[in-house]
Design goal:
Layout: E1 2-11, E2 14-24, E3 29-33, H1 40-47, E4 55-60, E5 63-64, H2 70-77, E6 80-83, H3 95-106, H4 111-124, H5 140-151, E7 158-162, H6 170-187, E8 190-194, H7 198-204, E9 207-212, E10 215-220, H8 222-225, H9 231-237, H10 241-254
Parallel strand pairs: 3-8, 3-9, 6-7, 7-8
Antiparallel strand pairs: 1-2, 1-4, 4-5, 9-10
Helix pairs in contact: 3-4, 3-5, 4-5, 5-6, 6-7
């Protein structure tokens, strides 16, 4: 579990995050949502240590990353897997080399152990025959799956996904959402997804934190978000045609 307590972050004297208190639960897909400029990306960067908050705590299973020394923090970093918005694959490396990269950089595994882990991860994301292809030779959806394989190569306790469906068509987005959800359950990972995609919220949002003007405005599940009377959450949710259709479908079922 990751707990956030009374977190504040400022830039140039301007408050970007104000008194954020929330938690991201183990074995669940935890979503951070909000409008552009709401602070959700800043929160994600604070969680993974790219930004240091001025006040507050971020606890990984009780360990506050703001008080750890360099060695202790590096240990937590090795427990993290990160799926970047643009996949961030190395163009000059094959799929196999991309997935092996963190294993080479951060472990002392033998070549056989690394090869076995690469094979397992690529099998898990349904890319068993893509080892020798380069990023330029595969589709956007395949790139996301390679990036997921790389993110889980170190068998992380925590998985962070920044806009995982960015640039994907709706059908491929559903595939990526399903894969993230399955991996979360299979390996009991604390997964945090930063997104503005209501499709993802409705498909995999077991725990949803809504950020509004730098504050935690609402927290609940994807079922609860359709029923909330919070005005700002309601406006955000029903800007999506998908959510409107879901709401209409639920009302029809009740009738």
């Amino acid at each position: 579990m990751i707990e956030v307590k009374n977190l504040y972050k400022t830039f140039d004297g301007r408050d970007v995050l104000t008194d954020i208190c929330t938690q991201f639960e183990e074995g669940k897909t935890n979503l951070i949502i909000g409008q552009s400029g709401s602070g959700k990306t800043v929160l994600m960067k604070c969680l993974i240590g790219l930004y240091r908050a001025e006040k507050g705590s971020i606890l990984y299973s009780g360990r506050d990353i703001n008080t750890l020394d360099k060695k202790e923090y590096q240990q937590i970093q090795q427990e993290m897997g990160i799926l970047f918005q643009g996949s961030a694959l190395f163009d000059s490396m094959t799929v196999r080399e991309n997935v092996m990269f963190p294993l080479t950089m951060l472990t002392d595994k033998s070549e056989k152990e690394k090869e076995d882990r690469v094979n397992f991860c690529l099998e898990r994301v349904n890319l068993p025959n893509a080892h020798n292809l380069y990023p330029s030779q595969i589709s956007g959806g395949m790139k996301k799956r390679v990036a997921i394989a790389r993110a889980i190569a170190l068998n992380p306790k925590y998985l962070f996904c920044d806009e995982p469906n960015s640039g994907l068509d709706p059908k491929t987005s559903l595939v990526i959402d399903k894969l993230i959800y399955e991996i979360t359950k299979e390996f009991n990972i604390t997964t945090v997804v930063n997104t503005h995609d209501m499709n993802s919220v409705m498909e995999i949002g077991e725990s949803v934190s809504f950020i509004y003007q730098g504050k935690l405005w609402w927290r609940g599940s994807n079922n609860e978000i359709l029923k909330t009377d919070n005005a700002e959450v309601h406006d955000f949710v029903y800007a999506s045609k998908y959510a409107k259709a879901m709401f209409a479908s639920q009302n029809n079922l009740k009738e």
